[in-house]
Amino acid sequence: MSTTKSAELVNYAERTRPARLTNSFEAFVGLRKGFATDSRDELLKYSHWAKALNEANLHITVREDEIGAASDAYQKVAEHLAANLSWPPEAILIRTQGSVSTKTLIRSPNGGEKFDIDAVCQVDISRVEATNPMGFFESIGRALVELEAQAKRRCWNLPFPNERFYLEFTPSVPLNTIPTQTLQAMAPRYSASRYAKTALAVVDTPTKDWKTSNPAGISQWVDDTAKRPLILEIAMEAYAADRARASVSPVPDQTVEITDTLRVAIRLFKRHRDMCAKRQIIDSSTKPISVIIVTLLTTCYEGFADLGRSFEHPVELLAALADLLPHLVLKLDGKYRIDNPTVEGENFAEKWNDDDGERYRSFKTWCDTLSADLKTILALTDQQAVAKQVREVFGIPAPSGGGSGLPSIQPPAPRATPATSGLA
Known about the structure:
Strand content: 5-15%
Shape: globular
Radius of gyration: 22 Å
Largest sheet: 7 strands, mixed
Oligomer: single chain
Number of helices: 13
Distance between the termini: 37 Å
């Protein structure tokens, strides 16, 4: 029987890992095949880990009203472009990409930093002259000059100094509207594969040429994968019952709970990476970019689903994802590879092969630290001790008043726009 690429990668990672992250889950009687009558009660023993990690996830969430402000900014940018370029408004479509579209946007542990919102400006090439890539890219920049647009490799940075966010704005055209001759020249390097209908051509300014991109495809892949059930139904029932007893306040739409384990893993692992950089465990200039974390975790989750794996509790799945993370990176012909699942030929780890191994070492150091920190958390059994350790690991302030829960936080004050890769 043939297996999928994701399943093959999971099998490879399981063969090459030295040991499991934790065996604590194996200790619970009746949690494997054939549940005992009191298995719901047994599953609730996970609750102290689940609550602490879920509260950490809620803490790092960007509020829905802040996302709404960014959405309003998209519309202003679209209107600005239409007015300054004399383009018909219906020729311009602006949509989010990256962390916002996958619901994995997080706050920085550095309290005053802005968060970045990635957006893509999709232009109907049949209505607008956009055949010359650099001419197209520069025309967008000229139209955005009043918004203090700053050119980057494939996007324009819009700082929005009076807001808590800034935009990374990528001009693009639908890939299927690129002239055939140009498309054929691109194909040997970058060709659309999965979710090909949403593929775009963006301008790569160093090469002054088009490059295939598919942010909507990545977002759809994460969404489709996250919906695949890996948690046994009995565990979901137990978790829901425990949540009801806890009387937790409703969360905003942008927020996901630990039962959406893929997205929670992406969020928590990104936060842990940021904390490692803040604590100078890894260098901030070489820390793994978010698209790599998203790709590896989603591939692993998809591989588990393709192999028919199941897990008794979201915490067990979270630990399994962390367990395999460092073993999912391929090295072929001496080169590191993390393939874009929607664009054949694009390697998200391309820069890892041009820096004497610095980025890979940062990735490995971060993975080792993540594993050690999760081992410490999962070895604890006292609820107060678990909550305290989770706060320490993920950089969350201790409660200011009574109670053991993790606190909510006030939105950070805006400050100067930090440098970003555009792949957050």
